[in-house]
């Protein structure tokens, strides 16, 4: 009976001990968040062709992500799970010969601009 009572006491005190020790701990690592990008900044996601050409889209106001989804085809050990998952999320049919660019999750600049106007 005493073992059961001791177990119940420990069980009831453990959350209080955890809270007390958590209050003593401070964040060791933190990163300040930069200012929010303007609405003129576009996110361009380029799913590169197997030759890794034609994804050099450079504009000062654009954020460009290049995706490589061809590890299986080239016997590369470069991870391509994220690229394949992202292409699937955007419902894209990737081509080994032609790169495919997506702007603000839209396939054309017109769609992206129209979407931006609806948001503003």
Description:
The chain is of the alpha+beta class and 120 residues long. It has a domain at 42-119. 39% of the residues lie in helices and 13% in strands. The chain is built from four helices and three strands, in the order H-E-E-H-H-E-H. It has helices at 2-24, 71-74, 81-89, 109-119; strands at 42-47, 62-67, 100-103. It has a three-stranded mixed β-sheet. The radius of gyration is 25 Å and the shape is elongated. The termini are far apart. The mean pLDDT is 74.
- Beta strand count: 3
DSSP strand (E) fraction? 5-15%
Integer average pLDDT: 74
Sum up the overall morphology in one term: elongated
Round the Cα radius of gyration to an integer and report it: 25 Å
Provide keyphrases for this structure.
120 residues; 3-stranded mixed β-sheet; single chain; alpha+beta
What does the secondary structure layout of this molecule look like, with pairings?
Layout (H helix, E strand, L loop, with lengths): L1 H23 L17 E6 L14 E6 L3 H4 L6 H9 L10 E4 L5 H11 L1
Brief summary of the model shown:
This protein has a 3-stranded mixed beta sheet with strand order 2-1-3. By secondary structure, it is α+β, with helices and mostly antiparallel strands. 39% of the residues lie in helices and 13% in strands.
């Amino acid at each position: 009976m005493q073992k059961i009572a001791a177990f119940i006491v420990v069980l009831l005190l453990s959350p209080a001990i955890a809270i007390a020790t958590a209050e003593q701990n401070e964040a060791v690592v933190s990163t300040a968040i930069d200012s929010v990008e303007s609405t003129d900044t576009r996110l361009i996601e380029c799913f590169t062709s197997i030759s890794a050409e034609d994804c050099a889209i450079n504009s000062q106001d654009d954020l460009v992500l290049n995706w490589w989804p061809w590890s299986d085809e080239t016997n590369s050990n470069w991870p391509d799970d994220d690229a394949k998952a992202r292409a699937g999320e955007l419902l894209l049919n990737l081509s080994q010969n032609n790169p495919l660019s997506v702007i603000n999750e839209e396939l054309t600049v017109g769609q992206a601009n129209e979407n931006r106007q609806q948001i503003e």
